[in-house]
Amino acid sequence: MTLRADTASAPVPADRLRNVDALRGFALLGILAVNIWAFADPYYASPESNPAFDSGLDHAVRFAVSLLFETKFYLLFSFLFGYSFTLQMAAAERAGTAFIPRMLRRQSGLLAIGLVHGAVLYYGEILSTYAILGLILLACRHIAPRRAVQIGVGLVVAVGVVWMLLGLLTLAEGGGDGVAASDAAAKLTAFGGDAASTLGFHSGHLPETISALVALQAPSAMAMFFFGFAAGRVQAFADPARFRPLMRRILIFGLPVGLIGAIVYALAAAYAPGGGVEVFAFGLGQLTAPLLTAAYVVAGVMLFRTGPGRRIESALAPMGKIALTNYLLQSLVLGVLFTGYGFGLIDRLPPLAVLAAVPVIFAIQLMLSRWWLRGHRYGPAEWALRAITIAGVPPWRRHGD
After folding, report:
1. Dmax of the chain from CA atoms?
2. pLDDT band at 4, cuts 50/70/90?
């Protein structure tokens, strides 16, 4: 992969990149397709463990989710976080403000939002992890794009190898177990109870879940931060045509290799969850998932440059422009549907019905995002985060432009 550092000095367009917003909107679809299982199923959509849903169709749904969505879309979101970091650098330069204090305020605000989100709505949230990892990117903001790619590749390889070795060790020691019945029962009781029990479960599990996310996702997310940072420094999305040969190579190589790793992981997640086989497959997935994510990015950018693709880009961009608000809104909606905050439907819907809810929720968010942005410059969460970032009061209504 060739990324020239001297292109980093080119001026960054002041206007938002609609393809970046559209990709961020697409990432939210994948995140919703994964996170919904943490609300709807106490066994996290594992047919091998869940005695209520163990049919062939249930396995097929689990396989599809693992194949197409798991371990891919948080990587896409992480990549876009790294890219947006360079846009924040450009914004600070245009505003004539010091970048480090501005980003420290932004990351602190993101950490606060993340911790509240995790304690109240979704204990598996990732914003707080992003807030901490962003400080590493802040410290590395002067590195060349090529060096950022090298660091990212090193992290991906190291993480994949470690998890594969852990999987082999687990197999050698007896294979491991699936989701603990006691853990599932506790979650089912909490989410099937009242709002207080749901709140207690989220807040009580937040510390251990953050620790788990640091082990499971933080290194790979950091790698994608670096990849996104490198892409932002060379303004890859401002003029994608310059990188057409690279994009073609990513599709030719990254798509099949990424799919092979995804298939192996999906088979393990659907038919051998919780043991050494899944741990090994997870490690293989950590090696190959960035390639599949890169293929998603390239395919999206190429699609957006076509006539029909521009309409898709236009539909997705408002969702991605207020991605933080939509991410939080997804947790709120899922909480109302599946926990004691609302209808308490946890473990009551078959996997196919759970999966079918994803496009419905997403479509509603698309419409709400477009409607909201007709009268507002920012989503509610984006407005609050920007206020913290600039240490001021940004305009609320669009007529204030």
Report:
1. 65
2. very low
Picking from 130, 89, 94, 93, the residue whose alpha carbon sits closest to that of residue 109 is 130
Enter the tokens of residue 315: 């539909």
Amino acid at 1: M
Domain total in the chain? 1
- Structural contact between residues 148 and 223, judged by C-beta atoms closer than 8 angstroms: no
**322 occurs within a structural domain:** yes
User: Do 277 and 167 form a contact (C-beta atoms < 8 A)?
Assistant: yes
Q: What is the pLDDT of residues 146-198, one digit of tens each?
A: 999 999 999 999 999 999 999 899 888 775 555 556 678 888 899 999 999 99
pLDDT at res. 205:
86
> CA dihedral defined by 16, 19, 21, 27, rounded to 10 degrees?
-160
- Which residues, other chains included, contact 131 with Cβ-Cβ below 8 Å and sequence gap of 6+? 107, 108, 110, 111, 114
Is 7 within a domain?
no
Single pTM value for the model:
0.89
11 assigned to some structural domain: no
Q: Which residues contact 106 (CB under 8 A, 6 or more apart)?
A: 88, 134, 385, 388, 389
Mean pLDDT score of the chain: 87
Residue 22 lies inside a defined structural domain of this protein: yes
Other Cβ atoms closer than 10 A to 87: 17
Q: Count of CB atoms within 10 A of residue 52's CB?
A: 12
pLDDT band at 16 (very low <50, low <70, confident <90, very high): low
Domain holding 362, by residue range, is 17-400
